[in-house]
């Protein structure tokens, strides 16, 4: 059940990001100055945290999708679904750590007002 719930939540999060991305790209129609000013928003710390959550959602959603395919197309998939869920969580966390470092390190001075 947790796998299903997390898959739905991350899917909705990705859908919201897609909408925001489309709006962001459409701002280009208002001219380069407006677009450049809007892109500066992405350097803010809160937006970096939202980007970090996007990376986490993409990682989990993609890996869990592979787990779902394994359960559906592999005869022993149902038998190992709990193990596969733990593997998905572990791989998601392991892959998330370097991404978190890359995204958060440039924002550290903003957090501590250095």
Report the mean per-residue pLDDT as an integer: 88
CATH topology annotation: 3 helical TM bundles of succinate and fumarate reductases
Radius of gyration: 18 Å
| SSE-based structural type | mainly alpha
The second-level CATH architecture is Up-down Bundle
Task: Kindly report how far apart the N and C termini lie.
Answer: 44 Å
Instruction: Write out the CATH superfamily name.
Output: Fumarate reductase/succinate dehydrogenase, transmembrane subunit
State the helicity in percent bands: over 70%
- Strand fraction equals under 5%
Write a concise keyword list for the protein shown above.
single chain, 114 residues, mainly alpha, 3 helical TM bundles of succinate and fumarate reductases
How would you characterize the overall build of this protein?
- With 114 residues, this protein is mainly α.
- The chain has a single domain (2-112), classed as Fumarate reductase/succinate dehydrogenase, transmembrane subunit (3 helical TM bundles of succinate and fumarate reductases).
- The protein is 80% helix and 0% strand.
- The termini are far apart.
- The mean pLDDT is 88.
């Amino acid at each position: 059940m947790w796998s299903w719930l997390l898959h739905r939540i991350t899917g909705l999060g990705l859908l919201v990001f897609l909408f925001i991305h489309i709006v962001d790209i459409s701002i280009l129609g208002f001219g380069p100055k407006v677009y450049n000013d809007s892109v500066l928003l992405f350097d803010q710390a809160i937006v970096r945290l939202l980007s970090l959550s996007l990376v986490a959602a993409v990682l989990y959603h993609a890996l869990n999708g592979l787990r779902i395919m394994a359960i559906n197309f592999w005869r022993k998939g149902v038998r190992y679904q709990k193990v596969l869920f733990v593997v998905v969580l572990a791989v998601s966390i392991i892959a998330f750590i370097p991404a978190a470092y890359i995204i958060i390190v440039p924002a550290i001075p903003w957090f501590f007002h250095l």
